[in-house]
Write a structure and sequence with these properties.
The chain has 468 residues and is of the alpha+beta class. The protein contains ten helices and 25 strands. The radius of gyration is 25 Å and the shape is globular. The chain starts with 6 loop residues before the first strand and ends with a helix.
Length: 468
Amino acid sequence: MIVERPYYCLAHITLEALSAHGIHSGQGDATHDVLLVRDANGLPALPGSSLAGVLRHAYCERHGQDATGRLFGQIGEQAQPSWLSVGWGLVHDSLDRPCEGLLDDKQRDPLLELLANSKPLVRQRVRLEHTGAASDQGKFDVTLIPAGVRYTAWLGYWCDDSEESRRHWKNLLALLGAGSLLIGHGVRSGNGHFEVSELAQACWDLRTPQGRQAYVARPRSRRDHQGLQALETALATTPVQIELQLRAEAGWRVGGGERSLGRHEKTPDLLPQHELRVHWENGQAVLSRHFHLLPGSALKGALRHRVAYHYRCLSGDFAGLASSPAPEDCPAVAQLFGQAKDNEGTAGLLLFHDLHLEDPRLKVLMHNRIDRFTGGVIDGALFSEEVLWQTEVTLRIGTLHPQRLATVDALARQALQRALEDLAGGWLPLGANGSRGLGIFSDPTGQGPRWSDQGQWINGAPAMEVDA
């Protein structure tokens, strides 16, 4: 026991992934660029440092730097250690039990057998230049864990008898009870979205015999939360949300799948992206069949380039002038989508989501290649492509950092609105081969982008202009 801090608080938190996710090791192998962090069993995990970093950032945004330093620790003239300890989030097996200790028979569990694979999911990514073509050396892949996987972690906190110390713990529990966390790679591109499915806590006064006895008898395993009080969690909300109803005018395809989800005499040569996810039924994990998806990264990349285009039109920054044509050098892109330049970076304000598609219509398109000199078909150049046909989707884009939202300048907001209107009007293709008619979406309702605040932010003056 720490004499100055005789109260010990313990929280048991279970997270369920709403999207594909991954904490990456920064290393690759001979075939893939980015690999996952794994525990001693070779299973994916959420490292305590990653969880602590996410919680610290979210806590600082709500309660300020001073309060965050007193809870999570700080350096400098007022240096102090962290009174909060964050345990690793350990993955659950197919019986919904956290995997603690060394396991001998992962192959007998269908979920753990999938997760022990070095590459459970692989998403192919490509970075586009201002010309709309793939950037040189901009092709890469990302290894991820399927949506639906659960993790459980511990949080421990030593607090004193002051109201301030107790308030820090209550604020942290309120943050977890808010319902969602963004953890790991590509959270603004649709990855790493988690919800808090279970939250329980208890506090013990170690100055009393009853408190010491309860502390000694506290749960030591993530599978046990006896003696802890369950807390309710709320649905996650964002400051402003955009919703857009779209329907594909014909076919579209994103990414490259490994097998066809339709029935064909011959498997098409080009296939759309597909993944599986985990569902929980009666306390057991069920691996779903593969489904098609529209990744958030595909929508984010298209809007990012179109926002840069409209911003430069609005600001009179045309081709041939001294400024750089790269989208990342556009002020509107830096404000809305974030940027990483030199040793500095800024997080984006827009939050995109993966869209899972259930039983979309499929069609196969046949292609051949024409010899430009003879006008005839090139021998051996006949190939087929499977596309999703006339799919109806509802896109939802969230926002983050309400304080920074107010500082986005008027031209950047106007460029974003025009880019969304282009998407609704069928002028902004999504996915592959937009130059030959694929990926054209339009809004069948004619309403265009709908804002949860009735357009106050996108049409209003930013706070920085009002103050001026």
